[in-house]
Amino acid sequence: MTGGTSRKRWLNPLLAALLVAGVQTAALGYMIESRASILRNGRDVLLKTVPVDPRDLLRGDYVILSYDISRLQPELFKGALPTQSGEVVLYVRLEKQSDGFWAATEASFQPLPLIGDSVVLRSLPFSYYPSASLPLTVDYGIERFYVPEGEGRTLEEARNAEALSVNIRVDGKGRAQIREIAVNGSPVYEEPLY
Hints:
It is a single chain. Helix content is 25%, strand content 31%. The longest helix is centred in the first third of the chain and has 40 residues. The chain folds into 2 domains: 41 residues; 148 residues, no CATH class. It is globular, with a radius of gyration of 22 Å. The protein is built from 2 helices and 14 strands. Strand 2 and strand 3 form a beta hairpin.
C-alpha cells in the first residue's frame, strides 16, 4: 500500500504542473495568433506620424509614435457624449486622403458602421470625464514600436523630421497592429506574422 500512496502523491503535482503548462501554452498561442490574424487578414492603413516631445524620445528599446488621428477635434464627434465618468472606448472612422495617408473623419462613443471604403478604428479603453474638453487624445495600441537595441535613434530623427510613416493593419473589430515602418516612403522595418 505504501507504494501506491507514494505514487499518487507524486502523480498529483505532476498532473497539476502539466495542466498549468497546457493552459499557459494555449493562452500564449491565442495572443500570438490574434495578433497574427490582424496582420494576415486586416486592412492596410497608412498613417502619418507627428513629432513627440523630445523628453520622451526613447525609453528602453522602443520608439514612441504619435499620429494625427490620435488628437480628435470637436467637429469629428457624432452622437451623444457620455454623461457619466467612467472607462469608455471611442470608434474613429478613417478615410484615405489624396496624399495616400488616412485621416480621421468621424468619431463616436457608439460603434460606427462600415461605410464605403472607410475603416473604423477602435481606441484602447480610457477614463472619460464629462467635464473633459475637446480635442480628445486617444491611444490605439500602436503608439510604441520595438526596435533592436541601439537602432531607435534613426527612427526618432525621421519621426521628428516628419519623414516617418506607419502602415497598420486594422481588422473588422477595429483592432490595429503595426505592419511596417517607412522613412521617406522606403520601408525600414516590417513586422513578421510570428
